[in-house]
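pls ignore typos typing on phone
ISE + seq
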Amino acid sequence: MAANGPLGVAVIGVGTMGADHVRRIDGVVGGARVAAVADVDGDRARAVAETVEGCAAYTEPAAAIASPEVDAVLIASPGPAHEEALSAAFERDLPVLCEKPLTPDPDSALRVLEAEQRLGRRRVQVGFMRRFDADYTRLRRTLAEGGLGRPLMLHCRHRNVSVHPYFTREMLITDCVAHEMDSTRWLLGQEITAVTVLRPAPGSGPSEALDDPQLVIFETDGGALVDVEIFAHCGFGYQVRTEAVCERGTARIGDDHGMVTRTAGRWGGEIAQGYLERFGDAYDREVRLWVDAARRGEVTGPSAWDGYAVAAVSRAGVVAQATGRRTPVEMIERPAFYGPGRR
Ligand SMILES: NC(=O)C1=CN([C@@H]2O[C@H](COP(=O)(O)OP(=O)(O)OC[C@H]3O[C@@H](n4cnc5c(N)ncnc54)[C@H](O)[C@@H]3O)[C@@H](O)[C@H]2O)C=CC1
Ligand SMILES: O=C1[C@@H](O)[C@H](O)[C@@H](O)[C@H](O)[C@H]1O
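k done
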C-alpha cells in the first residue's frame, strides 16, 4: 500500500456476498479499493471486475492474492474453499476478512489457527457480522449491565425465505446455525458444551430434502440453555430473532420493523426478505472497521479462535443431527496467543 493510499483488496468469490462486499468497498467504505477479484466462474469474475475501475479479474484465488496491487484479502467463496485462500494470504502475511464459517470443520480450522500462530500476530477476522449489528450490540450491553439478572435461556429464530440450491442438511448447521453459535458465545461469554438436534416432519418442496426446519439446542458451561429454530425455506421472509430470558426479566431483538399500516379492519407491517437487507448496516460497519484496522497494520474483531470454536460446535451439531443424540462438543484449550477470556 502506498503511504496514505487506499488499501488494495482482493475479493475471493464474487457470488451473493462477495459481489455485495465489492460494492461496499468500492462505494461505501472509505480507505480501500477493490484491486482484484477471483472466482472459479470466470464470467462472473469479469462481470464484477468491470463494475470497478482498475480491478483485475482472476479465476485462481492464489493468483489474485499474489498480485502486488493487493494489500488485504476478503474471502467470500463457499466454506470448504476458505482454507486454501487463507493459506495463500498467510504466505504473503496479509490481513484477511474471512466470511463465516472460518472453515466448516474443526480439523481444518485448527490448521488455520496453527498457521496464524506461526505468523506471530493476528491476521484473520471472521465475518460474524451480528457482532456489528446495533440490536445485537444493545442486547449484549443490556445483559452485561446485569439489571435483568443472570441469563438463563436464549430463544432464537433463524428463518430464510430460501437458501442456495446446493445447500445440504449439514449446512443448516455449519452455515446457518453457525451464527447462533457465535452469538451465544459472544452474548453470554460462555462456551457451548453440547448440542441436540430435534426435527419435526419436514415441510414440503425444497424443505423436504433438507429435513427443514430443525430445532437445535445448545447447553453452555455457564448452565444456560439455547434453542434455535432454523427454517431454511420458510418462504415468507428473513427473520432473525433472539430473546434472552433472565432471572428478573427478558430482552428481545429482531422483531420485524418497517412501516405498519392500518386499513379496512386489518393492520400489517413489513418483513425483510434477506440478510443483505436486514444486516446491511452491520456488514458496512464490519468491513469499515476491518479496513481501518488493516491500514493501521492490525486485525481486530471476531478471531480465528472464534471461528475454530464455532467449527467445533458445528461438528457436534452435525453428529447430533445425524444420530438424534445429545452430542458433547470437543475443543482444544484456547491458546494464549488469542488472549484471555472465552469469546
Ligand atoms: N455473513 C453473512 O451473513 C453471510 C455469509 N455468507 C458466507 O459467504 C460465503 C459465500 O456465500 P454466498 O455468497 O452466499 O455463496 P454464492 O454461492 O452466492 O457465491 C460463492 C461464489 O464463490 C465462487 N467459488 C466457488 N468456489 C470457489 C473457489 N474455490 N475460489 C473462488 N471462488 C469460488 C462461486 O463460483 C460463487 O460465485 C460463504 O462462506 C457463506 O457462508 C453468505 C451469506 C451471508
Ligand atoms: O450467513 C448467512 C447465510 O449463509 C445463511 O444461509 C443464512 O441462514 C444466514 O442468515 C446468513 O447470515
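The pocket of ISE (ligand 2) is lined by residues 160, 163, 175-176, 179, 275 (CB under 6 Å). The chain has a mean pLDDT of 96. more later
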